[in-house]
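Methods — Computational structure assignment.
A single polypeptide chain was analysed. Its primary sequence is given first, followed by the predicted tertiary structure written as structure tokens.
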Amino acid sequence: MIPQDNIFSEDELSLDEAPSKTFYIDFEGEEIGGLIDDLDAVRQAVFCILSTERFEHLIYSWDYGAELRDLIGLDPDLALPEIERRVTEALMEDSRITDVDDFDFEVEKGVAFCSFRVVTIFGELEIEKEIEVW
């Protein structure tokens, strides 16, 4: 027999957005951790996502990380638009990020210095990232 009545009302089944609060990671080892929230938490998430190669670590979902390593050796005219697409795709997996735009590239000795804007539900971030491509 299949029940015909819902045991929960729609008011009881609302889905709330998970909090953005996370532990601070001090990559230089100068400060003791603590909790960060909102824009600082998203900035740290952007750093972690872009520093993790997608599909390479079993601990992460296949939706986490960026596919940047296979761009090494590509012609700069092909690599730069692909970097823009892949960075945008990787960051848009985070529900707190609403847009990634205003990309600017400087190429020097096999490294693309990439700067871009990340629009979040908490505000905007200016991000810079070095990507080895050729």
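Note: Residues 76-91 form the longest helix (16 residues).
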